[in-house]
């Protein structure tokens, strides 16, 4: 498995192929469409992160002192974001998760779109993931 | 050319002329011409308004009302002149019935607080509708909690129209105030406010009108409507953010206690007894948003110089054309199909998340709004999480609608791929 | 040239450079160069602030926070960036402790209302001072009336300084909040707020600081002061009218109920139950004054780029020089002779009506303020109807003070003729 | 005695001699300094009109179906304004007072200074004078 830094770099390289927001958007939608579905039993209030315009269900679990994430959303775009976060964060140690600044979000030039903190749940999602790593 | 055609062509050239006054409409977004269909959220501003701001700050800026110096007198005069302009714009009897606020939200909060304190007691009832903006819900909820009053809600039908029978049955001696949105920001419905006011006045119940959306589209005539309060926002009617109006009948305003305390709203202050100015000054505490009120005056001048009836017709054409075209797309359902509608088009696309589609439109330089539009109860009624809303103003064009519809089709196809 | 002299000369050229940024200062009034000594009422604005306004309206204008389109995202980002700028400007821990309001008056009303509802009960006490601006008196009077609490007032001495002994004796378990002006707008007194806060905190009493005047002159450090609330107005610190700040400690803000209800401050609205956002959003209902907040950010940038310590020294020179010169004139009495004073000079001229003299200065293009300056209790204390107030900001010059003093002499002679 | 219209015209002519606000101000101050003092017995709360920055004591009386005004102020400038108003309004019939629009105030080009409604008591003073004529 790639390191966290390698995973981030790979995403950055992928996005470097696209010039426009249009292309990046379509790529994220594709990632979203490909995200493996979350087991229905996790799609409940307990696992829900409410954004203003979309909902995310996040399931975190530990295995062998690594942390794994699975998630789903009613928005395909948010599912694309989830796919990116899972690529970078899932299967890492708690320390790795706690310490990363997720600089790829800035580096792929989508900060303004991905960080609409109050419109979609990305920020809350990252917060939840980091909290899980703290426990 | 037919007369109709001539009219259309001259309308087009009028729209082009108007568009040239709006610097932001000349902009590209992601290399594509901006198509701004988020006018119900806020309108764009003509350069005349920007100039009014710059001019004021470059030539008159001063604090108002008590200054004996030149700048202060100029600024005071200009500020008070806008009160007169607003009076004329909404056909109020006196400029003393015009209170400047931050916007519709604050105007409603002011009434909820001050009218509530003066007139609402335990068990009294306030009536609103099921299609209110949160700004015409939450202030009443807060007030009803404090005053132990009851909030009643006029229900709507599947077209997004008020059930007037229910409304009529709701009226009673306990009803202390009715507050109704003139044009719904999420459905586009134009409510029969005149009829509501007449029914209410038969029982001497005052009525407040939320004109946040209507003030830019319709001619507002408070004398004819005979409403008791009316609220509007500068930023939705070509003016700057941070300014708004509360109109209130003097008979009521006079009986209402102050809302905020501070400079300028007092007659005299001492630690034993403080006395207050008469309306409107009683309700304008502290340094007002002088510059933006003055620039709002420039927005009113700009609106007054237009042929608003013609422009309204143009907006209605945009609405009808857009509705027709959008409905041709598979899976699209329009939310808000009232007979009387303003140029606001809300819809959902089956199986497609509204935000995803809104973001796709954004990639094409098209600005629409998605979500609940601060009217969650409307979404709950229609059992949907939100809609996509395209809201048109007179500076929009049929060509823009075409571009929008074609982007919509592409977006839906893209998002439906699984 | 001595080092002192070199410094003075370079200061002068710095002032000239700064003055060039303020279009209004280039103006003539009645054919005479404007001398603007009404800075305590409102400051003038540098062109950078006017540009920020025009730019915003020409390039980004949109409603914020929920929009998925380009303009809305730009506008939201810019708006929220100013929150961060304010955080840094006043050294707050978190930008979530920064609430945007219309100005100091609204900030104080917000605290009076929400803190009052959360924490103040019958018989509780609120402490203010005898030198407060009406905006830091009336909100507490209104709140004390509603909550049946008692308003206590720290007295002042003939120099216009707080009687700290009286203050210390006033503190008790009943004290729920202390609200104190940092710099008096009518006397110029700089109050020992740090000392007040320390004394209050020993009894766990929160303290609110009215920084309307101080924010432009002093460096505000809420971390060091450890104040619990602080209010300021954009328009007094080079920014536009209609914007202001309330700083509050998160521990307190979290426990306070909303002030106004409306869009954007809610988590979820239904007719059964409405829930609210966390601070700061809970306290920002409806469409905010987006453009002016962004332009206020430009004012902070402008201030940050200056050497404020040097400019403060310059202001102190203006004050001292003006006080010296004015006192040489027969019959003039300075009101407000505290040891620690900001560049605000209030005085009366025996036998001469303050407004008459202010109007005479106006005929000479000199803008001062006359009257009670929204501090009637101060005037009552000194048993005078009002003062003439010349308030200096760093863009003022010694030459302007000279012109002012000589006009003052002429005016007094003219008005003393009988 | 001159008619109301003549009195207004005379004031307009007088002010036409001055170009600047400076000169007009000084002239009004002179008028104020020459205003005959009001009998102290009228300087009480009953006769007071409170402006924000100056007080006016106004004494109205009727004689032979004409109305007369006497007034005083703590401001010399306001006394000058009073002098102008008395010149135009004192000794007129109720109808004359009710019907005049006092156009001289605009014509002498001092509207902005004289009409600082909230700073001095001019507007309230005129209102009171007109009210007295209504009774
Ligand atoms: C000390 C003080 N407090 C409060 C205020 C009120 O500020 P604002 O009018 O901007 O709300 C002012 C200014 O007028 C002031 O000088
Ligand atoms: C119908 C309606 N009412 C009230 C409001 C609130 O207006 P503002 O946010 O300008 O205070 C809006 C706009 O957001 C609206 O559309």
CATH fold descriptor of the largest domain in chain B = Aspartate Aminotransferase, domain 2
Widest beta sheet: strand line-up of chain A: 1-2-3
Low-confidence stretches of chain B: none
Q: Tell me the span between the first and last alpha carbons of chain B.
A: 50 Å
Sequence of strands across the biggest β-sheet of chain B: 4-10-9-8-7-5-6
Oligomer: heterotetramer
Polypeptide structure, described:
- The complex is a heterotetramer, with two copies of chain A (135 residues) and two copies of chain B (418 residues).
- Chain A is of the alpha+beta class and 135 residues long.
- Chain A has a single domain, classed as Sufe protein. Chain: A (Alpha-Beta Complex), CATH 3.90.1010.
- Chain A contains seven helices and three strands; from the N terminus they run H-H-E-E-E-H-H-H-H-H.
- In chain A, strands 1-2-3 form a three-stranded antiparallel sheet.
- In chain A, helix 1 crosses helix 3 and helix 2 packs across helix 3.
- The relative contact order of chain A is 0.19.
- The model of chain A has no long low-confidence stretch (mean pLDDT 89).
- By secondary structure, chain B is an alpha/beta fold.
- Chain B has two domains: 153 residues, Aspartate Aminotransferase, domain 1; 255 residues, 3-Layer(aba) Sandwich (Aspartate Aminotransferase, domain 2), CATH 3.40.640.10.
- In chain B, the strands form five sheets. A seven-stranded mixed sheet of chain B has the order 4-10-9-8-7-5-6, with helices on both faces. A four-stranded antiparallel sheet of chain B has the order 13-14-17-16, covered by helices on one side. In chain B, strands 1-2 form a two-stranded antiparallel sheet.
- In chain B, strand 7, helix 7 and strand 8 form a beta-alpha-beta unit.
- The termini of chain B are far apart.
- The chains are: A alpha+beta (135), B alpha/beta (418).
- Chains in contact: A-B, A-C, B-C, B-D, C-D.
- The complex binds pyridoxal-5'-phosphate (2 copies).
